[in-house]
TrEMBL record:
SMART domains recorded: S_TKc
Species in which this protein is naturally found: Diversispora epigaea
InterPro entries listed in its UniProt record: Kinase-like_dom_sf, Prot_kinase_dom, Ser-Thr/Tyr_kinase_cat_dom, Ser/Thr_Kinases-Pseudokinases
Domain Protein kinase: 162-337
One matching Pfam family: PK_Tyr_Ser-Thr
Protein name as annotated: Protein kinase domain-containing protein
GO MF annotation: an example: ATP binding
Alphabetical list of PANTHER family matching this protein: PROTEIN KINASE DOMAIN-CONTAINING PROTEIN, SERINE/THREONINE-PROTEIN KINASE TNNI3K-RELATED
Amino acid sequence: MSSRKICPECNQDYEYGWCKPCNSKHFQNDFNNWTSENDKIDKFIQDAQLNSDRYWKVLEWVSYDRFKDVKLIGKGEFGTIHYAWWIDGRIKEWDIENQQWKRYGKYEVVLKKFDNFVNFNDVLNEITIHLKTNTKYDASIQFYGITQDPETHSYMMVLEYAADVKLIGKGEFGTIHYAWWIDGRIKEWDIENQQWKRYGKYEVVLKKFDNFVNFNDVLNEITIHLKTNTKYDASIQFYGITQDPETHSYMMVLEYAAGGDLREYLKINFNNINWLQKLNNLYILSLNLRNIHELDIVHQDFHPGNILSYNFKDYAIKISDFGLSKLIGVNPNNPEK
């Protein structure tokens, strides 16, 4: 069955429930209604929205007040990880009748806060790579967006939630939070209501940028993460950006993976997994890594703690944490060039 349809707004062909010209217009019309108070982050999100040709490639700035029950679940050298409920959830589609985005509804997410970044390019690099891995095949932890801790002003990535998330994204640059995204990510434009339709409540991860001196490091991670948002789903999806109202830290909104990471899974289940299952997981993992390499991304921190899944038994494996990743041929000190 073909995925192509006729857009009820412009009467042009589109596929995967996403009309790029119309949805780009809806995003652009909303540019003046939000800001991260950082020009580089604003431009990064705006460019991602205008270039989105699938709902899973959408990145958002998520106001921190759209998360509830935020709690610290992990802390590492690069930052902290928080669990939270994203009240709205990620965007699903545009609601033509109500002229607003429909969303998937309440989501559990992880907020990855960047606590100790010296160079903001490092953060931007991870964000760029993570977004690039957002694909329809759910091969990696989804990256939903960016937010900011209102108290510390640290930026945070909003990520797909994984149950054992305390082992995800540990480092000196940020922290990871679990949360429910109340509205959920954007799905499509609701022509009738003139707003975005959304997938509703989502579990997400918020990656907070806590300790960076150069904002380009943050922008570099965001840029790379966004680039990984592809139809192959090789990595955790990047949904948007939010801000912690207490710390004022920015946070990436990322897909949450309930199955945890490969290291912990193997500690418990290694003797119960047959060789066929091991080889199948290795095969899927190799495909995901190949997809990331084809995007000219070098991960540089690839280990079992950064390999996540909804359910390892179903081979739903995704790659996460692009904080140390680099884009081939890109100057990490100026990722915009």
